[in-house]
Amino acid sequence: MKRYEIFTLISLAVVIAIPIFLNLVVFDEQNGSSDEPPQEENGDNNNGNDSNSENGSENEEGSENGDSEEIVWGVDSASYTDEDMYSCVIDNFGEPEVWGRYLGDREGVSAGLDSDEVDYLHENDIQILVIYNHVNDATGYDHGVDHGEQAIEYANNLEVPEGVGLFVDIEPDYPVDAAFMEGWYDRVNDSEYEPAVYGVFDEGSELLEQYNAMEEEVQEDMVVWTAYPQEEVTTKENAPEYDPQGPENSLLYGWQYAIDAETCNIDTNLFRGEMIDYLW
Q: Where do Acidic residues bias regions lie (predicted)?
């Protein structure tokens, strides 16, 4: 064999041997420097990730619960809302997020909402709860339909937008039956507005009994604003915990917890956040 051929073979052998040698050395160093098995380290990382994931889920659930339990404070009044009325409420009770007002004048009872008052309330970032209080006798299906028709006409004339709830006011001394509320529900539900009812839904009341006698679908789809139980008038800051009583199978989103404040002609209320969807 010639000299250059021998030299070539030796060079080739060296080139092949060097990577094998280096690999053996590095492998031994890695094994010697690690006291803990790799799988234990991976296990620690997995535990940490699981813990963070669980905490994240709990926080998301808490956030969701918080959203669903949002409570806002507001007032309602039979009086027209001008600057003096607004200042009286702000100075003595706090800033309401909701203001309940009536459709149409009822002599000796309530001043009707008009477009100037609507603009004034909206300019002050207050949403309006729309009340219909032209009922004296809440009995009979056709009677309920007729009052629903009248409420819709009032709302249209005032340009109340689609999706707003119309709350029929059924006072404790009014005769009432399930047929009237079903008539009200059917007519308003067939319009661009949402059917809703206000009343004193105390245990054993005729109103509660008749509400529970309605078709189940109607009960579950009616927005309810209850005036029971009654507590003391308070400022916004000192309002009680939200604890209304009313029909179980209803959208019970509002509680008029106190009436007839002496300083201003208002009643005080608490509303669940869901009520916002039915306000103007």
A: 57-70
